[in-house]
Specification:
The protein is an alpha/beta fold. It has one domain: FAD/NAD(P)-binding domain, CATH 3.50.50. Helix content is 43%, strand content 22%. The protein has helices spanning 2-28, 41-52, 77-85, 89-95, 117-124, 133-147, 178-184, 241-247, 255-260, 293-296, 305-323, 328-357, 362-369; strands spanning 33-37, 56-61, 72-75, 97-98, 103-105, 111-114, 129-132, 151-154, 168-171, 189-202, 210-213, 218-225, 228-236, 268-276, 288-290. The strands form 3 sheets. Strands 6-5-11-12-13-10-14 form a 7-stranded mixed beta sheet. Helix 2 (41-52) runs parallel beside helix 6 and helix 2 packs parallel to helix 11. The protein binds flavin-adenine dinucleotide (FAD). Flavin-adenine dinucleotide binds at residues 37-43, 60-63, 67, 69-71, 73, 133, 156-158, 172-174, 178, 199, 292-294, 300, 305-306, 309. Residues 37-43, 60-63, 67, 69-71, 73, 133, 156-158, 172-174, 178, 199, 292-294, 300, 305-306, 309 line the site of flavin-adenine dinucleotide.
C-alpha cells in the first residue's frame, strides 16, 4: 500500500515536472540542436518530446522508408501516462483496446492462473492497452508532422557517431546500436537465448486471451483491433515455419486454429535476445543518451519493450526541457537516475520470466503458478 502511494506520488511529481518543463521552456529559450539515430518507437517519441521543448531535431533512419511492419504493443498505464505527457494520449486511446480477462493455461486448456491485468487496472485507474505497432508509428509521425520542423532523413545508416554535429545525440538505434558501441564499447553484447518468437495477426477474434505454457514453448493471444487477434509463439530457435504448426498441434482451441487460419507468409520471426551485461550508464555525461532497445533490449516476456522505450523518451526529453542546453550534463544525469535502474530491473524480470516459462520440466512451474490468485 505504501509502495502504491509512493508510486502514485512519483507519478504526480512527473506530471507536474512535465507541465513545468514545457511551460518553463516556452520562456527560457535555452534550447539547442539534437540528432536522433533510429526512427522506431523510442526515436520518434524522443523527437516529439524534444520538438515540443523547442529543440531543433534531426532523425537519421537507416531504412529507406518506415515499414508498416509488426503486430501489437502492450501499453502499460505508466507508458500511457508518458504518452499523455508527450501529447499523444488521445491518439493512443482512439485505436487501442483494453486487455482484460487473460489467463495462463496448460496445453489442454486447464486454467492455471489469471494474468494480473485487473489488479494493474485497479491500481492505476486505467487498463493495460494493446495497440497495433504500425498505428502507433503512424501516430508518432503524424504528431511530428503537426508540430513541424523535425527533419526525418531516411536511408541514413549511422556509422560514425563522432561525426554527428549537434548539442545532443540520442541513440535510439535498437538492439545493435551503433551509438552504444561507439560510446560504451562492446562489453554489453547481444545474447541469444536459443528461443525464437513468431508473431502474427489472425483475421478473427478468438475471445480467448492470455498465454498457454507447454514444455519449452508457449503461445499467447491478445486483442488488438476489432475482428483481429494478435498472437505470439515462442519455440526452440531451430523450429521452422512448417514446424510451428506441428509444435502446437493438439493444444487447446483456438491455438491450432489461430495458426491454421493465418498465412505463414505474414508471420514474423525473430530470435529472443537481450543485452548482457547491463550498461553502467545510459548517458556519456557530455552529449549522448541511449533510449529503448539501444539501452536495454529485453526479451518480450513482460511485453515492456515499447513501454520502456516510451518511458525513456519522455523522461529524457522532460529532463532536457527542464535543464536546457546550458545544463545538458545535468539533464543527462537526471535521465540516467530516473530510468536506468528501473529499465534494467524490467529487463532482468523479463529474462527471468523467459527462463521460467520455457522450463523443460514444467510440472514444478505449473504447481507454483497454480498458487497465484485465480
Ligand atoms: C520493423 C520492426 C517491427 C517490430 N515489430 C514488433 C512487434 O510487432 N511487436 C513487438 O513487441 N515488438 C516489435 N518490434 C520491436 C519493438 O519495436 C522494440 O523492441 C521496442 O519498441 C523498442 O523500440 P526502439 O525504438 O528502441 O527500437 P527499434 O524499434 O528496434 O527501432 C530502432 C530503429 O533504429 C534504426 N537503426 C538501427 N541501426 C541504425 C543505424 N546505424 N543508423 C540509423 N538507424 C538505425 C532501425 O532501422 C529502427 O528503425 C519491432 C521492431 C522493428 C524495427
Amino acid at each position: 500500500m505504501q509502495n502504491e502511494q509512493n508510486e502514485q506520488n512519483e507519478q504526480n511529481d512527473r506530471d507536474r515536472q512535465g507541465e513545468q518543463a514545457t511551460r518553463h521552456n516556452d520562456g527560457h529559450g535555452d534550447t539547442g540542436t539534437a540528432v536522433g539515430v533510429g526512427a522506431g518507437v523510442g526515436g520518434l517519441a524522443t523527437a516529439v518530446g524534444l520538438c515540443r521543448a523547442g529543440w531543433a531535431v534531426r532523425v537519421l533512419e537507416r531504412r529507406t522508408a518506415l515499414e508498416h511492419y509488426g503486430t501489437a504493443f502492450g501499453i502499460h498505464p505508466t507508458a500511457q501516462a508518458a504518452l499523455d505527457r508527450l501529447g499523444l494520449g488521445e491518439a493512443l486511446r482512439v485505436r487501442a483496446v483494453p486487455y482484460r480477462g487473460a489467463k495462463i493455461r496448460r496445453p489442454d486448456g486447464t486454467v492455471l492462473a489469471a494474468l494480473p491485468l485487473e489488479r494493474i487496472e485497479r491500481k492505476a485507474g486505467r487498463p493495460e492497452l494493446l495497440v497495433s505497432r504500425p498505428y502507433l508509428i503512424d501516430a508518432l509521425l503524424a504528431e511530428l508532422d503537426r508540430l513541424g520542423g523535425v527533419h526525418l532523413a531516411y536511408g541514413q545508416r549511422l556509422t560514425d557517431a563522432d561525426a554527428l554535429d549537434a548539442d545532443l545525440v540520442v541513440g535510439a538505434d535498437g538492439i545493435h546500436s551503433a551509438v552504444r558501441t561507439a560510446r560504451f564499447g562492446a562489453r554489453s553484447r547481444v545474447r541469444t537465448l536459443g528461443t525464437a518468437a513468431w508473431i502474427g495477426i489472425a483475421g478473427f477474434e478468438t475471445g480467448v486471451y492470455g498465454e498457454t505454457w507447454g514444455d519449452g514453448r508457449f503461445f499467447g493471444m491478445t486483442p488488438v483491433e476489432p475482428g483481429r487477434t494478435n498472437w505470439y509463439a515462442a519455440v526452440p530457435a531451430a523450429t521452422t515455419a512448417d514446424g510451428l504448426r506441428a509444435a502446437f498441434a493438439g493444444w487447446h482451441d483456438p491455438v491450432p486454429r489461430t495458426l491454421a487460419d493465418t498465412d505463414p507468409a505474414t508471420w514474423i520471426r525473430y530470435e529472443m535476445r537481450h543485452l548482457h551485461p547491463a550498461l553502467p550508464a545510459f548517458v556519456d555525461g557530455r552529449r549522448t543518451a541511449l533510449v529503448g532497445d539501444a539501452a536495454h533490449a529485453m526479451t518480450p516476456n513482460l511485453g515492456q519493450g515499447a513501454c520502456t522505450a516510451l518511458l525513456d523518451a519522455e523522461a529524457l526529453t522532460r529532463a532536457v526541457a527542464a535543464h536546457g542546453r546550458s545544463k545538458l550534463p545535468a539533464a543527462l544525469r537526471a535521465y540516467d537516475a530516473e530510468r536506468r535502474r528501473s529499465a534494467q530491473r524490467v529487463a532482468l524480470g523479463s529474462r527471468t520470466l523467459h527462463r521460467f516459462v520455457t522450463a523443460r520440466r514444467p510440472a514444478l512451474r505449473d504447481a507454483l503458478v497454480g498458487l497465484l490468485p485465480g
